[in-house]
Structure formats: structure tokens, C-alpha cells
């Protein structure tokens, strides 16, 4: 394959990744980007080119030694549920965006410690990035069958590195707030994780089943090679100790590598995603390792006696059999593994570089006076340039230093350097006494021991410098031999370096922390980190601060970085959360912490503290005072919890009261309406009586016939008035419960016949035909006969009233079932409006237009009927008859409860 | 002869009003609800209308609103005669453009006086 063709494939591939990143960024928080599987796959950024190529190299040359790098993480991952969750919680509430922020904030927001962590990380990771570039470059040359050029400008891999640097610096700095989630990068990395695993397994299957005849075949052929046995047993206690240290080393790495911190903590969307990662990520690592062995030994068999770099077996094997598709796919897999590592690491590092080194130690002064736009631009620019320079610098490191070493040993050096953060890091979340000075002293000591036992000897290794330092020790002292420090000669260089550096690091961290008291701020953050679960909801409460500060000053600082709009919104939310009066002028501890948090994502914890401190006047607090306040705040939190519960109960009661009150208001309104209606109803007959009486009184010439008519009117209106009063009193009795029902066993057929008889005169007057439809003429039930007669009388009167003047028909249906009897009174009048079906039974009812009269009668009759039927445990309702006319039905239970 | 329209759903009240106004030389039209009144007004053009408020189908307020839309009825006087005697009912009636609001029960004599007074004003 030509260089050009390969470059073309790479560009297309990069372009696709770019598209995925772009798409995910645009999509935002959808189920495609925000789910536990994407999260887990993004963690697989752990498997870099080192895994992809280096494992095979190690497996081929020294057997089982490649395994600890995966065994370590697999051992510790179950503990993520507790530890990683804690770290994520701490980072979320404090808006932490890197491991440097994390450590420096815990140790009293220490600027120096943040910078130190950053420097150690850069020291550790740059060779690691160089390793990736080396892998890309070497594999590129293998696939394109070219060789590395000594002039870097004519070497194509230089341009690949530049393209990568541009890609990473563009996509890694989309947000000025570094604690924001980078959906695009995460999704692209997750995608690459799928691809690299897929291509690697593809290669495994190809080698195992196509080149060879399965696992047994490879084993059979490999076992006759020389050194097979020694390479594939752990072999004795010293080797086991080596193994153990390598496990510990990678266990640290899975927490401390900036790219792992970035993916597992900063980019974590939901704590719950950890639950999936806990089983899926180890599974991923296991899958990756299935074929390492077959490929490594397959290579050993095929290239026995030839001098080839075993790191590149995975490409050489398919190339050996001239299979170009597999070669290129494998190359793309390795490329994926390398670039995800490079991009994520450089983002993490550049955030640290800007937030923990450059801004607090240089740019802060300039940012302090800039406007929001220029500040945002400047910060993003610093990070962009940072990412670009880090990658380019790594490229130079690759060209100058690491050309000679294999992937595995470079990776190991990185791991050991990064491991120096472990005591301070794990101490941060587990041990309240751990202090800033302890952390700094331990880290520096550990780093120097690393340098002495690993970096210096390795550096000497590349140059052809006099190596008596390695063979004879410093100043010729045996005990100071870098690879056998203090006479321990059974450890390999890497485990040895780890052992001594971590030992001294830990001891010094512990000793200094215990011997010298930290300042109050450290103690304060120690409390917040170790007991994060207690402070998770109101963590600003846990921050201790005394002094004077004006909200307006703080606001000004915030505006410079967040802008007018966001500052306002944030402060509003804050005062809502803590129920603070908006007109308050003085800021309290909570606001100070809140403001620091807001700035942290932009410029890092240390700078945030410096900026806020520059506009407020802080008073010193002594350590005992802090401890006392912390003790009190713990009690307060418990009291607060109780208060919240009580206030929740109060809220519920208030809601109930409010509802009861609303009901009362409605009832009251209904009562008023009822009185209105009643008084209107009472006045109407009085009006008629008064008018007629006045005419009779004043007019002597009135004809006899008219006089009689007026007198008749007075009589009937007086009767009406009387009926009305009785009805009102009836209703009142039912309402107040004074009305008693006396049930006896009666025949409803008989009751109905009796009622019809009472109304015979009216029925005959209007010439109405009345039918009673029933299967039997004895239908018995328990009821108060007088009351039911009242109901029937009312229903029949209405029916008579609404029957047409000619051919009026009233039909009374009687039905029964096991439990109820049902009576229906139907007329052939004009029927009832459907909307009034329920309302006609309501004594308070007035149709929606208050001035329209009710459809039936005085309006009280049906209300009384309803009361009576309800007192019988029955139901009453209205329907319209099929053809025309109204139909009122009611039921009464056949038996009483007793 | 002056014409009067009586709108009320209570037959006995209507009977008294009809008798009284006929005796006072009015030509009397009778409607039992707002709709009937509006139907009558399509053809007849009374000088004065006596209007109840609580009636089936179309209430008195609504009826008056319709009347006020008719150009040819702009000189017709309207008296509300209602048992609704609350302040807000009266205000509403007058604000709709009624010339007078009398509450039930009422004095027949006074009603006749008021009717005459209103018509003389012309």
C-alpha cells in the first residue's frame, strides 16, 4: 500500500470520527450519547496502542507479564461503586475538571500543589503520548512499507501528528467551562473503542483459525519453541512479587491517569452509569486479551529466527500472508486506540496546564481586568495552544528519546510517574488528617526516586553515556545502584522503582501530615471530601469562612468570566436555593463557595480562590474554631433534615386546609345562590298576589268575571307559596339530618297506583294516557311509603306539566333484579337538555346563565326527590326517552342492611 | 293608541298587567319569554316594553341586548320588572340601557305612573 493511499484512508477515517463527534455534540443529551454503554466504552480509552500492539510484544518476549496491566483494574473495579461514586460526587459539587483540581482543592485549594500535580502528570504522560505517536509512525511505515526518515519534514508521520494535534485542539476546547461534558469527544471515543476491539478480535480470529488451525495448533507448535516454559509460568516468589507490583501499578493508573479521570469523572453524566461500567468494562478488557496470546505465539512461530519487532506482529502476520484488508483494518484499530488516548489525554493535560499552572501563575492578572468575551476567548486559546503544543512536544520526545524503547517499557515509566499522585489522591477521600505539606513532600520525594531509579538510567540508556552509574551506583556506592536500590536485587526495574517511590511517598505523606497541623481551609475541605455524602445537597453550607464581602464585588468578578446573563441567573438560583433576600448586600460563606465553584470550571480551583479572595476581606479562623464549627454543622445538618421533614408535613397539612377552605368557599357561594333562587321563587307568587289584590282594591268597575279570576289567582298563588315553604323546610330537614326514614316492606306497584289516583284530576284535565308497565303487579321492597309517594308525586306532576296538550302519554316502568327495584317515569314532552341531566337534581343549581330558569318546576322538587332516594341508598337520574320526552329513573334496594 | 309589550313567564302576573294597561288605553302584546318577545318585535313596534329577567330560554338581559341592536326600536322605552333585587342586578340592568328598573313585588299604580311619565318625556 502506498503512503498516499494510506494517508487517504486515514483522512477519511478521521473525517468520519469528526462527523460522529460533531453529530453527538449537536444532538446533546439524547439516549444515544447519554447512556451507560457509551460511558463504559469511553472508559476503554484505557486500551491504547500499548494494549493493541505492546501486549503482543510483551506476550511474545516475556510471556505472562502483559497480564497485570488488566488484572489490576479488574481487581479494583468492583470498588468503583463506592470509591468512584464518591470521587464523582465530590467533583460534581465542586465543579472539578481535572485530577490536579481535585487534589489541590482537597488540600486547602493549594495553588502550588495543583501546579505540582500538573507537572508530574505532564512528565508522566508526554512519553506516553510519544509512545502512541511511535506506534502510529511505526505501524504506518510497516503498512506503507516505507522507512522512518531522519528529516522530520519528509517523514509523513509528522503530518499525521500535526493533523491529530489540530483535531484534538479543535474538539477538546468547545467549552470554556472545563467541567462541562464533551459529548462529541466521548461519543467518538466510545465508537473507537468498539472499532479497536472489533478489529483486534478480527485479527485474532484470522490468526487463530485462518493462519493456524485453532488454539491447539498454535499451542502445539509454540510449545516446541525455546524458552516457552519459562516465559509462561510466573516462576518463583520474586517473579510473583514483580507481578503483584505491576498489578498495584495499573490499579493506581485506572484512577489516576488524566485520561481515565477525564472520562470516568469529568465526563460522567449520571452516577448510575457506574453500575454498568462495573461489569461491562472488565468484560471489555477480558475480550481484548483473549487473542493476545495466540497472536503473540503465532508470530513467534512464523518469524522464528528473524529479527522483527514483536510489537508489530499483528500487522506483520497478515502482511506475511499478503492479506491487505486485514492489515489495514488492524492498522485502523491501532490508530483508533492511539488517537483516543492522545486526544483525551491532551484535553485533560491542557485543562490542567491552563487551570492549574498557566492561569494561576501568570495569566490571572490579565484575566482579572478583561471582559467576559475576551476572557473566554483567551482561556479557550490557552487550552487550544496547550493541546497542540503537548502533542507536538510528544512528537519530539518520540523522535529524540523513545525511538529505541519498546511500547511496554515506555508505558510502564509513565505509570510509575503517575502513581506518585496515589497517596495524596486516595488520602484525600479517606483520611481527614492528610495535609497539604504532607502531600507536597511525599509527591516530590516519590518523583525524585522515580527519576533516580527509572528516568535517569533510561535516559543514559539512549545516549552512549558512561553507564557506570547503573552498574556501580552513585559515587560507586553499591547500595545506591538505581536498579538494585538498597540491595534489593530480585525486582525488575519498574516494580523496584514503584516500590521505593511509593514507599517513601507514603511514609513522608503520613509523617508530615501527622507532625504538622494543616491550616483550617485544608481541614474544611478534608471534611467535605471525606464526608461528601453528608454535604451533597447543601454543600455550600459546609464551607467555613469568616469576613466581610459585598455581593456586588463578587458579582463583578463573576461577570468577567460568566457574562452578565449567566451571573444573574446563577445568583438567582443561589438565593432561591438558600432562601436569601435578593436585596442583601453582604455575602456569606455559602456565596463565597458558590462563586468559587462557578469560576472553578473556567480557571481552576486555585485561581478561583485567588480571584474571590481579591475582592473580599477574610478574617483568620483558628483550627479549633473550624473543628467546632464543623461539629456544629454536622448537628445542624441532622436538625435540618428533621426540619425538612416537619416542613414537608406542614406543607401537606396546609394543602389539606387550603382544599377544605376552597370547598367551604364553594359551598358558601352555592348557599348564596340558593338563597337568591329561593327569595326569587318566594317573591314571584307574592308579586302575583299583590298585583291582583291591588287591582281588586282600587278598581270598583272591574267586571264580575275578572274579579273572580283575580281572586282565583290569589288562591292558587297562595297555595303555591305554601307548597314552596313546605319544600324548603323539607329540604332543610334532609340536609340537617332531622328527617328520618321509616322503612317497611311495601309493594311499589301499589304505591305507584295510589299516587296516580291522587293526581287523577290533573291527568284527566289534560287528557293524558297513563300506562304502568311491569311483569308482575307485586314488586316488593323496603322503603318509607310516604316519602316514595312524595317522590312519585313530584315526578308525575312534572311529567304531566311537560306532556303536550294533546295526546299526552306517561309511561311508568317497573323492573327488578336480585338487589334493586327500578322505577322510571317517562313522558312524551320535549325532553331535557343533556347538559342538565345532573344539574336538575341540584338544589343549588342554576343553569350556567344565572338568569335562565331551570327546566323543571320550582327547582326544589327534584332536589328533594334526590335526597329521599339517597336516604334509601338508591340512585336517581335522568335520561331522554328513545323517541321523545324525558325519563327520570330511580332505584331502591330490595333489602335493608339490617 | 300607545302600544305596550309585556314579557313575563308568570301567567298570573301577566294577567294583572294586561288588565291594567288595557284599562289605561294601551294596545297590549304579550310574550312568555325573551325569544317570543323578539319574535313579536319583528313586526310590532311598541312604545314601551316591560321585561322580566328570569325566564326560560332567553333571559331579560339578553333580550334587552338584542332590542338595543334594532335601529327601529331605539325610541322604545324599556322597564325591567324583576324579583332580582340585588344592587348588582339593578346596575347591570340599567347599564344595558333600560330606562327603569322596578323590583317585584310592585305597586300596579306606581308602574302605570312610571310608564306614563316615561312616555310623556318624549
From TrEMBL, chain A:
The keyword Transport does not apply. SMART domains: HATPase_c (SM00387), HisKA (SM00388). This is histidine kinase. Its main location: membrane. Residues 677-896 form the Histidine kinase domain. Keywords: Kinase, Membrane, Phosphoprotein, Transferase, Transmembrane, Transmembrane helix, Two-component regulatory system. It comes from Flavobacterium endophyticum. InterPro entries: HATPase_C_sf (IPR036890), HATPase_dom (IPR003594), His_kinase_dom (IPR005467), HisK_dim/P_dom (IPR003661), HisK_dim/P_sf (IPR036097), Na/Glc_symporter_sf (IPR038377), Na/solute_symporter (IPR001734), Sig_transdc_His_kin-like_C (IPR004358). CDD domains: HisKA, SLC5sbd.
From TrEMBL, chain B:
CDD domains: REC_OmpR. Residues 3-119 form the Response regulatory domain. Coiled coil: none annotated. SMART domains: REC. SUPFAM superfamilies: CheY-like (SSF52172). GO terms for molecular function: DNA binding. The modification 4-aspartylphosphate is found at residue 52. InterPro entries: Bact_response_regulator (IPR050595), CheY-like_superfamily (IPR011006), Sig_transdc_resp-reg_receiver (IPR001789). GO terms for biological process: phosphorelay signal transduction system. Signal peptide: none annotated. Pfam families: Response_reg. It comes from the Bacteria. Keywords: DNA-binding, Phosphoprotein, Transcription, Transcription regulation, Two-component regulatory system. PANTHER family: RESPONSE REGULATORY DOMAIN-CONTAINING PROTEIN, STRESS RESPONSE REGULATOR PROTEIN 1. This is Response regulator receiver domain-containing protein.
Amino acid at each position: 500500500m502506498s503512503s498516499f493511499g494510506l494517508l487517504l484512508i486515514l483522512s477519511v477515517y478521521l473525517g468520519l470520527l469528526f462527523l460522529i463527534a460533531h453529530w453527538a455534540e449537536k444532538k446533546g443529551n439524547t439516549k444515544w450519547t447519554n447512556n451507560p454503554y457509551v460511558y463504559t466504552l469511553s472508559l476503554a480509552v484505557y486500551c491504547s496502542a500499548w494494549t493493541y500492539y505492546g501486549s503482543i510484544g510483551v506476550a511474545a518476549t516475556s510471556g505472562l507479564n502483559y497480564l497485570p496491566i488488566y488484572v489490576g483494574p479488574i481487581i479494583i473495579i468492583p470498588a468503583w461503586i463506592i470509591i468512584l461514586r464518591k470521587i464523582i460526587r465530590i467533583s460534581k459539587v465542586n465543579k472539578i475538571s481535572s485530577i490536579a483540581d481535585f487534589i489541590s482543592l482537597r488540600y486547602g485549594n493549594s495553588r502550588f500543589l495543583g501546579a505540582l500535580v500538573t507537572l508530574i502528570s505532564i512528565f508522566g504522560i508526554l512519553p506516553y503520548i510519544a509512545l502512541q505517536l511511535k506506534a502510529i509512525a511505526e505501524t504506518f511505515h510497516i503498512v506503507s512499507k516505507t522507512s522512518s526518515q531522519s528529516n522530520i519534514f519528509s517523514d509523513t508521520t509528522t503530518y499525521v501528528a500535526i493533523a491529530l494535534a489540530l483535531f484534538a485542539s479543535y474538539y477538546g476546547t468547545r467549552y470554556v467551562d472545563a467541567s462541562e461534558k464533551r459529548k462529541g469527544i466521548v461519543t467518538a471515543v466510545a465508537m473507537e473503542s468498539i472499532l479497536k476491539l472489533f478489529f483486534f478480535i478480527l485479527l485474532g480470529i484470522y490468526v487463530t483459525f485462518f493462519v493456524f488451525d485453532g488454539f491447539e495448533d498454535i499451542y502445539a507448535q509454540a510449545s516446541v519453541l525455546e524458552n516457552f516454559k519459562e516465559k509462561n509460568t510466573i516462576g518463583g516468589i520474586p517473579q510473583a512479587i514483580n507481578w503483584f507490583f505491576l498489578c498495584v501499578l495499573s490499579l493506581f493508573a485506572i484512577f489516576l491517569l488524566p485520561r481515565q479521570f477525564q472520562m470516568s469523572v469529568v465526563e460522567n453524566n449520571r452516577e448510575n452509569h457506574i453500575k454498568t461500567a462495573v461489569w461491562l468494562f472488565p468484560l471489555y478488557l477480558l475480550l481484548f486479551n483473549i487473542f493476545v496470546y495466540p497472536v503473540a505465539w503465532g508470530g513467534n512461530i512464523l518469524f522464528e529466527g528473524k529479527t522483527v519487532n514483536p510489537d508489530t506482529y499483528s500487522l506483520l502476520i497478515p502482511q506475511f500472508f499478503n492479506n491487505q484488508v486485514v492489515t489495514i483494518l488492524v492498522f485502523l484499530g491501532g490508530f483508533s486506540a492511539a488517537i483516543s488516548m492522545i486526544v483525551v489525554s491532551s484535553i485533560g493535560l491542557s485543562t490542567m496546564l491552563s487551570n492549574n499552572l498557566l492561569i494561576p501563575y501568570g495569566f490571572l492578572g490579565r484575566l482579572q481586568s478583561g471582559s467576559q468575551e475576551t476572557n473566554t476567548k483567551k482561556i479557550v486559546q490557552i487550552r487550544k495552544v496547550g493541546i497542540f503544543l503537548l502533542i507536538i512536544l510528544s512528537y519530539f520526545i518520540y523522535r529524540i528519546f523513545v525511538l529505541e524503547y519498546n511500547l511496554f517499557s515506555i508505558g510502564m515509566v509513565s505509570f510509575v510517574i503517575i502513581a506518585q499522585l496515589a497517596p495524596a489522591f486516595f488520602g484525600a477521600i479517606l483520611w481527614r488528617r492528610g495535609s497539604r505539606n504532607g502531600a507536597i513532600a511525599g509527591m516530590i520525594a516519590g518523583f525524585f526516586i522515580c527519576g533516580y531509579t527509572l528516568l535517569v538510567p533510561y535516559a543514559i540508556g539512549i545516549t552512549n553515556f558512561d553507564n557506570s552509574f547503573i552498574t556501580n551506583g552513585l559515587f560507586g556506592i553499591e547500595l545506591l545502584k538505581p536498579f538494585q536500590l538498597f540491595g534489593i536485587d530480585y525486582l525488575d526495574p519498574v516494580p523496584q522503582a514503584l516500590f521505593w517511590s511509593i514507599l517513601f511517598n507514603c511514609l513522608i505523606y503520613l509523617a508530615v501530615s501527622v507532625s504538622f497541623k494543616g491550616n483550617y481551609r485544608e481541614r474544611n475541605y478534608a471534611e467535605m471530601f471525606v464526608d461528601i455524602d453528608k454535604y451533597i445537597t447543601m454543600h455550600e453550607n459546609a464551607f467555613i469562612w469568616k469576613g466581610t464581602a459585598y455581593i456586588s464585588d463578587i458579582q463583578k468578578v463573576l461577570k468577567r468570566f460568566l457574562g452578565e446573563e449567566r451571573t444573574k441567573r446563577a445568583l438567582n438560583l443561589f438565593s432561591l436555593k438558600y432562601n436569601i433576600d435578593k436585596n442583601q448586600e453582604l455575602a456569606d460563606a455559602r456565596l463565597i463557595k458558590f462563586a468559587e465553584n462557578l469560576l472553578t470550571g473556567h480557571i481552576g480551583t486555585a485561581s478561583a480562590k485567588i480571584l474571590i479572595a481579591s475582592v473580599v476581606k477574610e478574617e483568620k479562623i483558628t483550627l479549633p474554631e473550624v473543628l467546632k464549627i464543623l461539629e456544629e454543622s454536622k448537628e445542624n445538618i441532622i436538625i435540618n433534615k428533621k426540619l425538612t421533614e416537619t416542613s414537608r408535613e406542614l406543607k401537606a397539612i396546609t394543602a389539606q386546609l387550603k382544599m377544605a377552605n376552597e370547598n367551604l368557599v364553594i359551598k358558601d357561594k352555592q348557599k348564596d345562590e340558593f338563597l337568591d333562587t329561593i327569595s326569587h321563587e318566594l317573591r314571584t307568587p307574592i308579586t302575583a298576589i299583590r298585583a291582583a289584590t291591588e287591582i281588586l282594591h282600587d278598581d270598583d268597575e272591574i267586571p264580575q268575571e275578572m274579579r273572580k279570576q283575580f281572586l282565583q289567582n290569589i288562591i292558587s298563588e297562595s297555595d303555591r307559596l305554601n307548597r314552596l315553604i313546605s319544600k324548603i323546610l323539607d329540604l332543610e330537614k334532609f340536609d340537617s339530618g332531622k328527617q328520618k326514614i321509616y322503612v317497611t316492606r311495601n309493594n311499589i306497584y301499589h304505591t305507584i297506583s295510589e299516587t296516580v289516583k291522587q293526581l287523577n284530576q290533573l291527568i284527566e284535565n289534560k287528557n293524558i294516557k297513563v300506562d304502568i308497565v311491569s311483569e308482575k303487579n307485586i314488586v316488593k321492597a323496603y322503603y318509607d311509603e310516604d316519602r316514595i309517594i312524595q317522590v312519585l308525586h313530584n315526578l308525575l306532576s312534572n311529567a304531566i306539566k311537560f306532556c303536550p296538550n294533546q295526546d299526552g302519554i306517561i309511561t311508568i316502568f317497573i323492573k327488578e333484579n336480585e338487589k334493586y327495584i327500578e322505577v322510571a317515569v317517562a313522558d312524551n314532552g320535549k325532553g331535557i337538555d343533556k347538559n342538565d341531566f345532573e344539574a336538575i337534581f341540584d338544589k343549588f343549581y342554576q343553569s350556567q346563565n344565572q338568569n335562565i330558569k331551570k327546566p323543571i318546576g320550582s327547582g326544589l322538587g327534584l332536589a328533594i326527590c334526590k335526597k329521599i332516594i339517597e336516604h334509601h341508598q338508591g340512585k336517581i337520574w335522568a335520561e331522554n326517552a328513545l323517541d321523545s320526552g324525558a325519563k327520570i329513573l330511580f332505584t331502591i334496594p330490595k333489602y335493608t342492611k339490617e | 293608541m300607545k302600544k305596550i309589550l309585556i314579557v313575563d313567564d308568570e301567567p298570573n302576573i301577566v294577567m294583572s298587567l294586561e288588565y291594567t294597561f288595557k284599562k289605561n288605553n294601551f294596545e297590549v302584546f304579550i310574550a312568555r319569554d325573551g325569544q317570543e318577545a323578539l319574535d313579536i318585535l319583528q313586526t310590532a313596534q311598541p312604545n314601551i316594553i316591560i321585561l322580566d329577567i328570569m325566564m326560560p330560554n332567553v333571559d331579560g338581559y339578553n333580550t334587552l341586548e338584542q332590542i338595543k341592536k334594532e335601529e327601529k326600536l331605539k325610541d322604545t322605552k324599556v322597564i325591567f320588572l324583576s324579583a332580582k333585587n340585588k344592587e348588582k342586578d339593578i346596575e347591570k340592568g340599567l347599564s344595558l340601557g333600560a330606562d327603569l328598573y322596578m323590583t317585584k313585588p310592585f305597586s300596579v299604580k306606581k308602574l302605570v305612573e312610571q310608564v306614563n311619565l316615561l312616555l310623556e318625556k318624549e
